[in-house]
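Chapter summary example: a protein plus zinc ion.
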Amino acid sequence: MNKNNNRYRITAFALFTILLIINNSIVIAQQQGKTITAESVKPHIVELADDKYEGRGAGYPGEENAAGYIAKQFKKAGLKPYGDQAGKKRSWFQEFDFQVMHPLKPWEIFKSRNIIGLIEGNDPILKNEFVVIGAHYDGQGRKGQADPMRFLSKDSSSINDEIWNSANDNATSIAAIIEIANAFKEGKIKTKRSILLIAFGAEEHGMTGSIYYVNHPVFPLKDHVAMINLEKLGRLTGKTFNTIGNANSLVWDEIIKAIQTQTTTKVVMTSPYVIPDSDHYPFNGVRIPAIVFYTTGFAAHYPDDHSDKIDFNRVAEAANFVMQMVTALADRSQRPLYVPAPIPDLGLSAHLATNAEADAMGLKAPDGGLKVTGVIAGLPGAIGGLQPGDLIIGFANSKFIRDEPLESLQKKHMDALMGKQGNKLKTTVIRNGKTEVLELSLR
Ligand SMILES: [Zn+2]
């Protein structure tokens, strides 16, 4: 579906265009500001994709060092730290433990952290509402580390490349966020609502950083008005940018269309509904309008994801567009309304456990199970009692086998969500060596 048939020909301009949407009529104001350039995003990408960060595998020192770099950049850009309380002050970091996907030792738990910074709004009332812009900063790590993508890779070059530097996925998006923060500061741009910038840890292990955030938000969840997640902004030169999830609010098409009349940037919706594939998913789950803005889909080039493959102009183009989106959301008089999807969401992140994990839980081959890595508070999985670290061995009249193909798992999940097994899904888990039977209610 191409939503981009109207091709507006507008000459590119070096000024920021700020969209003020007042009483449903769109007033376009131009404001002198700093345009984000290839030169400004490049150093962050080259830095974070350097071998010294070892591909930023979640839970390893490379990821923690990358968090330190991002916090330093957030500070330079004048953001206010909004992580965990550290004495009377707040730190930049929100720490959490997570269930490792494909761990080297069965059921190993690692530590990661989100980095959180705030730009305060200037409207006395609306500044208590927040527009979130986020992206994950963890990557694929190095050989010998627990890592979901390397584990799955059949690509022979992956054997030779010790470190998967994860430049496109997702140093590009972190660079965009840092430079958006700098553009707000240097352009002295003020918005009515506040803007919360979050670099998420451990996304590659079942979105555990963003799930942790919605379960432990730094402001009341009801005051988060919208969320934009950025993924993989630096490859596929000449192709459109894409979004997923626009159906959760009318605001997305409204602002994307309005901004497209002012730029040559092409943005196309790939799919209207959010699926659990990146950090916008938990926000959508708790009824916050949330989309992902990205380029390449699942077929990213992991082993050769080096900074010399990145189109820095493209990253800058995405960052300028997203900055306008964030500004439009933050200045809009009415907060966007959330539109629920027709298919229910269990609010879960789970994947096939490794054979060693199934063995450790006493299963006999070929019996397997789904390991739960994340549960979103207030959704059917959490209400039914599921917890991270549970091994699901029975779900809605289905059992699981080891090495079960993804399509088969997805079909079982989809059939259950469509209500084919009724509205109460009997779910059997092994927890702390004991078998428990839970019931998940579809809403
Ligand atoms: Zn990613």
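Key point: DSSP finds twelve helices and 20 strands in the chain.
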